[in-house]
Amino acid sequence: MKIVLEHLTKKFISKHNKNEIVTAVNDFDFEIPDGKLVGLLGPSGCGKSTTLNLICGLEEPTSGKIFFGDLDVSKLPPENRGVGMVFQNYALYPHLTVRQNIMFPLENLKGADKLSKEVMEEKALEAAKLVQIEMLMDRRPSELSGGQQQRVAIARALVKTPGVLLLDEPLSNLDARLRLQTREQIRRIQKETGITTIFVTHDQEEAMSISDMIVVMSAGVLQQMGKPQEVYNDPINLFVAKFLGTPAINVFDGYIRDHGLYIGDDRIGERNVEDQEVYIGVRPEAFDPKENGSFKCKYDRTETTGRDTSIVCHNDKCISDEDIRAIISADEPVYINDGVITFDLKPNKVHVFSKKDESVIR
Amino acid sequence: MKKKNDLKGWLYLLPALVFIGVFMIYPLIDVLIYSFEEGYNFASQQYQGIGLYNYSYVLHDPYFLQALKNTFILVIITVPLSTGIALLISLALNSIKKLKDLFQTIFFLPYVTNTLAVGLVFMILFKKTAYSEGLINLLLNTFGIASIDFIEGPYWAKMFVLCFYTIWVVLPFKILILTSALASVNKDYYNVARVDGTSKWRIFYKITLPMISPSLFYLIITGFIGAFKAYSDVVALFGVDLNAAGMNTIVGYVYDMLYGNSGGYPSFASAAALILFMIVLTITMINLMVSKKNVHYQ
After folding, report:
1. Strand A295-305 relative to strand A308-314: parallel, antiparallel, unpaired?
2. Residues of A with CB below 8 A from B195's CB?
3. A206 and A281 both lie in a single domain
4. B194, B195, B206, B209: best to mutate for the A interface, most A CBs within 10 A
5. pLDDT tens digit sequence for B8-44
6. Residue range of the domain that includes A110
């Protein structure tokens, strides 16, 4: 099912100060195509969970509309929207077995929708099989690992075959290895069911790895949306550039003079715009060690973690971090002269942002 | 090393063990012994034989049977009613937002007042004298119902006052326990249930009730035990001569046997106390057995 948000806004009265109004979601206007897996991404407190609750119906929008397909659901209570929701802490009923947990939503059906016990059992088993927990049906949640609980919660959300599946920070309670496994599971389940799925996360890697589309938010404002790689390759502003990518993008104080892009005295590229002060973002993979490269840095050390070799160096103009990280391929020769290392910078990995509003200068 | 640690452990436990030994175990054994000593005399501290006569006497004593009946009626009426009412009030308190603290304070006030003082107030409310009908009777009269003497009148009226009073006295503590139990249920359970379209009744029955079942169970067990041990409340309402009022309880009977007008019979008192103990033990065992199935500890 296609989801459309139209000028969606949610304001709260601040908990600390009754006179202060917090805008958690500010004029959201976007469309999520049918059958996609979408990651709502942003730092904590940026309003992504609120957005999810609005879509789910647990919160009512201050203004704006939500459409599922062509149906305006803005005023519908959650139970009439046909959504499945997985909470961050899973919220499995501790006194019920896995089977009873999964069957719970089915037992709520009334009137013409009412199902026989056999059909319910069958559907519950089907959902359990989908998330591969059919052998755990008679256990209680406390007897399951975090990853298994997560899957039970997904099965419970899916058992009514909702039009939309919502996941709030689905991986945050899992350890690193399980996180990798579980995110693959989520991808697989979403592919198999074809249900439009929205998940919230503050972990950009998680979002980038499995989403068909990511929506980057900050302080209640939508920053950019698109395919993960597109957003990564072409960030619309400094925030998005900084938020996506590990190691993070290196940001420098720079300027444009006579169509040349400068960091300090080093001319590292071209921009066909008028002279001005700018922020220059350089991705770690942009660095290309060259004997007479255009960009000079003080060499500090080389770090090898697994397959990556990164060179840590310094430059006075760098404002993002004391260390500049450059990821290079291990077999590339490195030239260091008097403690100075020189690089050429790959133009498509260098992003320039206005100092006025931090928007991109292409 | 292990021996030394064992010794240390016992040493740390010693103060508690001495206290329990002197003030609980010893008196319990003593009561048990008294209850089998026939014809025990306080003054001479002599007894004539050992046997079950004390039990037989107590079980045939019409005063004891009356006390047994009163106690059972009190327990059967007040425990379920007070727990149920406390649950209803707690649910209401939990669902309101404004003035919640104020109401919580109001409902808790009776807990910090003295039993006897409250009993006196109840007596004044219900009592009918030559000079006044009492507030409750005045109320009844406005509905066209004739005055009833609740304190010295028919048995059912007295029992009504006693039950009413007992429920009122035990409510605050139960409300306190239940409101905190309700407040500690994670809101996400309710959100999940809402998304799944669960009806209010089903949320209560299938989620809330199991979640607070440990607290509820605790209240039922302590409620049973407390009601079986009722005494001071009855005195507050009906005075010290409970046998004459026909409103004695088992604990009241034990007290009377020891210190009352007919007092000076520690053997009978002990036998009655042990009978009470057996009753409470049985009920608690049944409670525990039922709870195994229905109480969900997390």
Report:
1. antiparallel
2. 56-58, 78-79, 83-85
3. no
4. B195
5. 889 999 999 999 999 999 998 988 988 888 877 777 7
6. 3-236
